[in-house]
Amino acid sequence: MSPYIQLVSRACPLSPDYVPSDLTEPDIPFRASPGDPKRLLRAQAACAAEELFRRAHRMQIDLYGISGYRSYDRQAEICRETQSAYVAPPGCSEHQTGLALDVSCPDLNFELEESFASTKEGKFLENYGPMYGFIIRYPKGKEKITGYAWEPWHIRYVTKTLALYLSLINLTLDEYHQL
Ligand SMILES: [Zn+2]
Fold first, then answer.
1. How far is 148 from 126, CA to CA, in rounded Å?
2. Where are the alpha helices (DSSP H) in 42-109?
3. What CATH architecture is 8-178?
4. Residue positions annotated with a catalytic role
5. What are 147-179's pLDDT values in tens digits?
6. Which of 116, 21, 129 is nearest to 66 (CA)?
7. pLDDT tens-place string over residues 130-146
8. 158, 100 in Cβ contact below 8 A?
């Protein structure tokens, strides 16, 4: 199976030593300092993110990358720090795949919160993301299926073909894998 459409969830974790082989830094604005692994994505997702952000820029949409790749160990650390039921256990976070990116904007002070969905940046992400291969991975109304609260800021690269398909028929990646 293509790694780009792989399901990573509590039921389908990654191994602790999984690190994508082709992590690279996309040329998009980030909040994290240079050198921070948060600025990394797998090569194909990085390329797609650059195209998506360029399109946004042309439309005066002010997107910022907040968090891309996250290692198993870093996820374990976050779990120890927060102890929230919504935080994925280590191995179960999509960020370990290097295919997920959290996005925000200056209007929201670069926070990751639900109100992002009603900003022009949040709307752009939902409407244009699929054309570049990205889906809103944890949509509103699908919480029981994904096991996650609504996260309008978290996009996942799944290739253009699959992203368009899923968004057109309103299917989550979890449901796709159950077909
Ligand atoms: Zn995320």
1. 17
2. 43-58, 72-82
3. 2-Layer Sandwich (3.30)
4. 151
5. 999 999 999 999 999 999 999 999 999 999 998
6. 116
7. 999 999 999 999 999 99
8. no
d(CA 66, CA 157): 15
β-sheet bridge partners, residue 24: 41
**What separation in Å is there between the alpha carbon of 59 and the centre of ligand 1?**
24
> Whole-angstrom Cα distance, residue 137 to residue 129?
11
Secondary structure class of 64 (helix, strand, coil):
strand
Q: 134-136 and 100-104 as β-strands: parallel, antiparallel, unpaired?
A: unpaired
CA of 8 to the centre of ligand 1 (A): 12
Which residues sit with Cβ closer than 5 angstroms to ligand 1, an ion?
102, 154
- The residue type found at 105 is C
Structure token pair of residue 125: 């992400």
Confidence of residue 1 (pLDDT cuts 50, 70, 90): confident
Q: Residue 82: its pLDDT value, please? A: 86
Q: What is the pTM of this model?
A: 0.96
End-to-end CA gap in the chain: 15
Q: How far apart are CA 16 and CA 2, in angstroms?
A: 20
For residues 98 and 152, give the distance between their C-alpha atoms in angstroms, rounded to a whole number: 18
The residue extents of the domains of the chain are 8-178
Length of the chain: 179
